[in-house]
Design brief:
This protein has one domain. The chain is built from 6 helices and 14 strands. The longest helix is centred in the first third of the chain and has 46 residues. It is globular.
Length: 321
């Protein structure tokens, strides 16, 4: 009996199972690390906002974006103290960063410092350290508020957007809604209504961009209620559509239903925080919408397994002016 090549065949069969076990172990560990780190960030953000001396009628968005130098109603610059969206992308080759990266990050707002453990680099851009998500062009010219030992870094012209997949079509094409990295916990219908959030101690109907209400929509106010979003996307696992159940098998195999990376079919329900672009790269966060691309399954381009991880924290405001 000819047994030449038998060991190779056996290894090929067993290696598939070993690969799945290894990939699952690595990705599960990464999910746990990301979730724990994200929860710590949420606590830091809520605590800092709870003790910040902000006006009683200030909304969450106003408190985080107002300019204390030019706005008399802005009592403290929380963009430099708590969170700056312009610090989500860092150019490691910038002279202000390259000489002392740790010193530069130490000068960042506290939430951005805490997010450093969740930032990534990519082979196509080895000098760019950024938060995970869709890399977008940002043309406002705003720079990160951090001023390190070697000065302030120049604007990168880039920002990050977080795509939330709200729906998938029959072929896997996505409908997405852009969500911020740091946001106030509000109902979906009030997501774009800052005056209806719990941060402000009073409801000012006259300043409600979504239309004045006769009564306060909340029963409790004066809360720093924050959510931090992180798009986990696997580097070694692909995404599949579930197969419809049958009479004999409620969970049939779905190996034949990979979610193809068809960025041209993606539907956006709101505007991105920047301009999308596609450099043709392959990776967990590649593509114009940051939904990722993997080369697998006989050369097809598929989506990686993904899950939006959100951590929340709530503190009652302690300092009010």
């Amino acid at each position: 009996m000819n047994e030449r090549g038998g060991a190779l065949v056996e290894f090929a069969l067993v290696s598939v199972v070993l690969y799945l076990l290894l990939a699952g172990t690595l990705e599960f560990g990464r999910v746990m690390f990301d979730a724990n780190a994200l929860q710590d960030v949420a606590r830091v953000a809520a605590r800092e906002l709870a003790v910040a001396p902000v006006r009683a009628d200030a909304t969450f968005e106003y408190a985080l974006t107002c300019d204390a130098a030019s706005d008399p109603g802005c009592l403290v610059d929380l963009r430099a103290r708590v969170f700056d969206a312009n610090c989500l992308v860092v150019d490691l080759s910038d002279a202000a960063v390259a000489a002392d990266p740790d010193g530069y990050f130490a000068a960042m707002p506290v939430v951005n410092r805490a997010l450093r453990t969740l930032m990534i680099t990519e082979p196509a851009r080895p000098n760019i350290l950024r938060y995970a998500g869709a890399l977008l062009s940002e043309g406002s010219g705003a720079a990160c508020s951090a001023v390190g030992p070697n000065g302030a870094a120049a604007p990168t012209g880039l920002t990050v957007g977080i795509p939330l997949v709200e729906e998938r079509g029959a072929t896997g094409n996505e409908t997405i809604r852009w969500v911020p990295v740091l946001e106030e916990i509000r109902s979906v219908q009030n997501a774009d209504c800052p005056a209806r959030g719990p941060f402000s101690l009073i409801y000012l109907a006259a300043t409600d961009d979504c239309g004045a209400l006769d009564t306060d929509p909340l029963v409790d106010r004066g809360l720093a209620a924050v959510r931090v979003n992180y798009p986990y996307q696997a580097a070694t696992l692909s995404a599949f559509q579930p197969s419809p159940p049958t009479f004999v098998d409620p969970l049939p195999p779905n190996i034949g239903n990979p979610i193809l990376a068809e960025d041209g079919a993606v539907v956006q329900t709101n505007l991105a925080p920047g301009s999308t672009f596609d450099d043709g790269e392959v990776g967990p966060y590649a593509g114009p919408y940051g939904l990722g691309r993997q080369l697998a399954l006989a050369g097809r381009v598929v989506r990686p397994f993904r899950k939006l991880i959100s951590a929340q924290a709530i503190y009652r405001r302690e300092a009010v002016q």
